[in-house]
Predict the structure.
Amino acid sequence: MGVRKKQMAERIKAEKKKIAFAKLNNCPTSPRKMRLVADLIRGVQVEKALAILKFSQKEASRRVEKLLLSAIANWQSKNEDANLEEADLFVQEIRVDGGAMLKRLRPAPQG
């Protein structure tokens, strides 16, 4: 491996170490309701986001709180020597998309 390629690979590895993400699949909550909660914590410090989610009345906030805790745990597993309080973590990006829909139909004769 060349010197420039090696330096680029090390830089990319160091940048990926700063980022941690989590993904929530098969959540039976509508995206419209989930976006209301997601908009509250987008761009906010992690400690403040956890406090917002803990005291929110919405049912979707429990799921997003669990997702945020999972992302924090993923970051801690990448950075074992770093301290969470000194890291100054924040929610950079949070997206909510629609999932699979249940097909509800009643079979009936067609002729």
